[in-house]
Amino acid sequence: MSFSKILTRWYSVNKRNLPWRETKNPYFIWLSEIILQQTQVKQGLPYYEAFITKFPTVFDLAKADESEVLKLWQGLGYYSRARNLHFTAKYVVDELNGAFPNTYKELLKLKGVGDYTASAIASICYDESTAVVDGNVYRVLSRCFGIDTPINSTSGIKEFKALAQELIDTKDPATFNQAIMEFGATQCRPKNPDCMFCQFQEKCIAYNEGKVDTLPVKLKKLKVKQRYFNFLVFLSEDKQTVLEKREGKGIWQNLYQFPLIETEKSLEYDAFLKLVKTHPYLKNKTFELRQYNNAPKVHKLSHQHLNTTFWTVTTESVENGIPFENITDYPVPILIGKFIEGFGGF
């Protein structure tokens, strides 16, 4: 029996009941795929349901404010996905009259849509025979076929795509693509894969050669950069605080944060107090500075670690303030969101 037949037979018995598997509507499929990029199903499912409830059509998403989209996305991370999602919705509505492209090549032209997402939409919605390759697929193919080419190398990306394309069931590409992703997510897991009850046990090279724990191979990441963030949480007598919108192309673009002072290292209280006294918001003002967390909280991103300290600044008044009780109306990074949840306030 062929690889694809074994796989799709397994899928027919073991697939999870997920809402985006009940439709071929390209809007819903596109939305689910963008949300699930770098996100596990159990984490992404509530976001998917929230989005389709608030924005049931691409027209609804297109006419929303970006801040509204970012707020709904809050906690998922990789916020460029949300900005691209909103941009593409507006493009589909304004330029394509609300109709998504119906081929792999045309889907690739959408902002935020790469090879994997275009393949998923094209196969699931339009039955185009184009193979998906994501982390789950890399793992299944690498182990089953004993491939040790690094999955994040140029040659590896080409090799695995070609193999997936060779294996795909051209008569039912949608089922094949969903099956191999599901198999990687629930059976051929990164850790503790269920090899004892695997359909491919006899033919799996990694299992038979004791390489399950070493495949797939991935090139080492770049050195992680250490950054030191100090957030000033202003607390005025009339219960106002200050939030600033992050501009530019760095992390958290268009999200809100407390005024930030970035330093080259963690500073002791006295050294930081001298720095705070020069802040534009505190010119000619009396204030009280307190360190909220005793030690920096490390927030880990893909290529940088943010060593973060929150400082409360109590003062008589603040300029451009907002009521502290309204702070949850603004889209903020998860780091700020968790602080707000745990903060006692005034």
From TrEMBL:
SUPFAM superfamilies xrefs: DNA-glycosylase (SSF48150), Nudix (SSF55811)
EC primary class: hydrolase
Cofactor note: Binds 1 [4Fe-4S] cluster.
Catalytic activity, as annotated: Hydrolyzes free adenine bases from 7,8-dihydro-8-oxoguanine:adenine mismatched double-stranded DNA, leaving an apurinic site
Listed Pfam families: HHH, HhH-GPD, NUDIX_4
Keyword Secreted attached: no
A GO BP annotation: mismatch repair
Statement: the UniProt record of this protein carries the keyword tRNA processing: no
Listed InterPro entries: A/G_AdeGlyc_MutY, DNA_glycosylase, HhH-GPD_domain, HhH_base_excis_C, HhH_motif, MIG/MutY, MutY_C, NUDIX_hydrolase-like_dom_sf
Keyword vocabulary terms for this entry: 4Fe-4S, DNA damage, DNA repair, Glycosidase, Hydrolase, Iron, Iron-sulfur, Metal-binding
Cofactor annotation: [4Fe-4S] cluster
EC number: 3.2.2.31
Domain of life per record: Bacteria
Gene3D superfamilies xref list: Helix-hairpin-Helix base-excision DNA repair enzymes (C-terminal), Hypothetical protein, domain 2, Nucleoside Triphosphate Pyrophosphohydrolase
Ranges where the HhH-GPD domain occurs: 35-186
GO molecular function: 4 iron, 4 sulfur cluster binding; 8-oxo-7,8-dihydroguanine DNA N-glycosylase activity; adenine/guanine mispair binding; metal ion binding; oxidized purine DNA binding; purine-specific mismatch base pair DNA N-glycosylase activity
Family that this chain belongs to: Belongs to the Nth/MutY family.
Function: Adenine glycosylase active on G-A mispairs. MutY also corrects error-prone DNA synthesis past GO lesions which are due to the oxidatively damaged form of guanine: 7,8-dihydro-8-oxoguanine (8-oxo-dGTP).
NCBIfam families: mutY
Protein name as it appears in the record: Adenine DNA glycosylase
Species the sequence originates in: Hyunsoonleella flava
